[in-house]
Amino acid sequence: MKAAPDQRLDVLRGSAPRVHHNARTLAALENNPRCMLRAVLDASGSDKAAIAAHAGYPSPFGQSSFAIVRGNTFEAMVKANGCAELLRVLRETLQLTLPEVGYQDLNDVGGDGRPETRHARTAHLLTGAAQGRGSDTLYDHPMLRLTVGGHPVFLEPDLVAFRIGDRFHIVEIKSFPIVDGQADPAQVRAATTQACAYIIALRAMLAEADVGPEAVSDTIVLVAPKDFTNRPTGAFVDARKQVATLTRQLARIERIADLVDLLPEGLTFDLAADDTGRPRRPAQELAEALDQVPATYRPDCLNHCEMAFYCRSRARAESSLDVLGTEVREHLGGIDTATMALGLARGTLTPDDDQVEMAIALRHAARLRTELLESGDAR
Ligand code: SF4
């Protein structure tokens, strides 16, 4: 008889303590939703950074201490004096009408900073506001909670939720600059995805009091330094698509039993650490265990997943087209590996019915390349 899904996940993680999600790791789920390896590692609470490092592929993840200090300083400045600078941005830059502002600091409850206490207070205040009780507008550091794969995850947003009309909006305060109204798209996307986790968690909290999802806006407010100064400015960011993708990915983790059933019984990513925490499991054996779970590597994994160097190496060894990115992979539909593409281009491999047209195109491209090389025009 097969073990229950929770037991299987515990076996996958092995003796290591469960790694809990946070907004950053939840946001990363939205990036490569097809990847089974990531889904299984996350659902089992495995320590991806430790696993990748022991398999021989340490990841350079984590913000620099300089970036963290800069981020904290900017956030403190925006929130100083009851969020005075934030209010200026909301009113002047974003032209929002916030006539009276009630401010609630939810960093602790009468000196009690435990997540459970703060979450209960957050739920009481925000649910009350959604139901027409209370007149607060700004909620600083609300403590949200989301159930991920059957386990509660507290999300401590570095944010303010504000209420205007009948809707809550999530504010993300980031220290990367908005220059001439434009910010780095990758950083905006990362910030937006993180805010999506808060939107989903806030909706889940309100749903417990029968408040519908429309009470939380899909549009987030991004507050960041204007140009290269320290003066904050703001922008609205439409997060609908990312909220939908992350919601689907969270539902996928809830259905993890279907994925786990596809894995060999007894498969584990246990590092077999000794009393001092030093991994004892042979690295090769760990890599072989990882190799048994399908991974859909693509180049942007390098920006958001601790397993990226391991997966890139594996994709290269398998001659997978994934290393060349989604666009190339889609162009070469029906062809699984670079070896196969080269074989079809050189005519050493006979195409099957679905590959005939692509094989003609590849042979044509190969001929052109050869002609160019022979004429000496290729650079
Ligand atoms: S790096 Fe590997 S495990 Fe992570 S998302 Fe990409 S393919 Fe999946």
Q: Which residues sit in consecutive blocks of at least 5 with pLDDT less than 50?
A: none
Round the mean pLDDT to the nearest integer and report it.
85
Which distinct ligands sit in these coordinates? iron/sulfur cluster
Order of helices and strands: HHHHHEHEEEEEHEEHHHHHHHH
Which structural category fits the helices and strands? alpha/beta
Strand order within the widest beta sheet: 1-2-5-6-7-8
Continuous helix count: 15
Overall tally of structural domains: 3
* Rg: 25 Å
Which strand-content bin applies to the residues? 5-15%
Shape: globular
Main beta sheet strand tally, sense and closure: 6 strands, mixed
Query: How many angstroms does the end-to-end distance come to?
Result: 62 Å
Share of helical residues: 40-55%
Strand segment count: 8
Protein name: Secreted protein
Organism: Amycolatopsis panacis
Short descriptors:
8 strands, Secreted protein, 15 helices, binds iron/sulfur cluster, globular, six-stranded mixed beta sheet, two-stranded antiparallel ribbon, alpha/beta, 379 residues
Could you please describe the fold and organization of this structure?
With about 375 residues, this protein is an alpha/beta fold. It folds into three domains: about 5-60 and about 265-300, no CATH class; about 65-250, no CATH class; about 330-375, no CATH class. It has helices at about 5-15, 25-30, 35-45, 50-55, 65-95, 115-130, 185-205, 240-255, 255-260, 285-290, 300-305, 310-315, 325-330, 340-345, 355-375; strands at about 105, 140, 145-150, 150-155, 160-165, 165-175, 220-225, 230-240. The strands form two sheets. Strands 1-2-5-6-7-8 form a six-stranded mixed beta sheet. A two-stranded antiparallel ribbon has the order 3-4. The radius of gyration is 25 Å and the shape is globular. The N and C termini lie far apart (about 60 Å). Iron/sulfur cluster (SF4) binds near residues 297, 305 and 311. This is Secreted protein. It comes from Amycolatopsis panacis.
